[in-house]
Amino acid sequence: MPLIRDDAIILQSLAYSETSKILRLLTRSHGVRSVIAKGAMRPRSRFCGLLEPFTVGIATIYLKEGRELQTLGGFDLLRSGQSLGRDLLRFGGASLLAELIVRTAVEEHQPGLYHRLLRALDRIECAPAAELESVLLAEAWGLVADLGYAPILDHCTACGRALDPDEDGVFDYPAGGVRCRECAGGVTGRTVPAAARANLSRLVAGVAVALERTRGYWILLDRFIAHHVADGATIRSLPFLAEVLQP
Amino acid sequence: MAVIEELTGELARLPGIGRKTAQRLTYHLLKRPAEEVRRLARAIEAVADRVRACSRCGNLSESDPCAYCTNPRRDQSILCVVEEASDIEAIERTGQYRGLYHVLGGRLSPLDGIGPAELSIASLMERLGNGEIVREVIVATNPSVEGEATALYIHKLVQPLGIRVTRLARGLPVGGDLEYADGVTIAEALAGRREL
Description:
The structure holds two protein chains of two kinds.
Chain A: E1 3-16, E2 20-27, E3 32-37, E4 56-62, E5 69-79, H1 88-103, H2 113-126, H3 132-149, E6 169-172, E7 177-179, E8 191-192, H4 194-204, H5 215-228, H6 237-245
Parallel strand pairs in A: 3-5
Antiparallel strand pairs in A: 1-2, 1-4, 2-3, 4-5, 6-7, 6-8
Chain B: H1 2-12, H2 19-31, H3 34-50, E1 52-53, E2 60-61, H4 67-70, E3 75-82, H5 85-94, E4 99-103, H6 121-129, E5 136-139, H7 145-158, E6 164-167, H8 183-191
Parallel strand pairs in B: 3-4, 3-5, 5-6
Antiparallel strand pairs in B: 1-2
Helix pairs in contact in B: 1-2
């Protein structure tokens, strides 16, 4: 049974039986892996306290090809995720990113995804409170784009015409982007004013934009993800974020 | 053989018991006197029939309200919020706490679809707003990322009511050895250090 050592971020941690945990890990070179950490909840376990969501470390995994659940042999801490639990918005945002990766998980090496999430968690943890919501939107939209689901914002998804910078559009969720006014007949999506379209483009590029109102960007994200990333299913972290964001 | 198989199957569904252990337990029971086995069966049946969640605190109990809620000698002004009813037993074992309890039924975990609505947070707020003379709420959720977020959520809701909200301390276990403690626990202990 080959033994691998790889940098990993814990995406999800579930109790299993009396003392074990099942983890979903995003590894640097081996994609997303499910592992069982036997005895992790025993008081004197070497894993005690380490195997929490958003913790970054070096995972030692006994890899048996063809099996969905691998065995975790060790986990050396690089960075704890505990502080993300001390702010509900940061916790909700980190949960959203983890859920998006879990939903689209593949075992193949996804170059850059590990570093992307690592940077995102860093940014979420360190962002000043006033900028946090914009940072969350930028990281969520940026991750959606990096996972291969970038929305089409610069040209009409129906006729293909390039949209003028000052041109409004209408979001067509099934088509995955905006339509020009001429092609928007019968489309029930939100109207996206030119300025909002520009902001959305920057968010998709991972740039935290100073936004006066954020609700529309969250609604777009929610519906876009439901259509393209989650196959119509609900992303569970989004209702939690919506509740936390309520004034 | 059918009933043996059936019992083995039922036992194997219990946490921490695999097929092999279930089989061992089944054959162990078959070797015991019939009355002893019936006593076990009656005890399981009684638990299923009589134990319910307390309508006030959520503790699992034969009576409703439970013995903690109705005990006049317990301090009615302190409420300890725990994730699961089994946590009450752990706190009671210390013999240090004489207040009341409230069981949440889990902890916030957006990724697993557990939001505030899935926990008994509304009933907690109802208790606090219903004239119960609570001066302090001790949040005893687990010291995990999710337990921490749950504690924070409760703090946000309870603090505006003018009630003191405290959290169980975290750090090194008594009798433990620093050398063998994990990095997160040591970091938390350092962050939570106090004056001597």
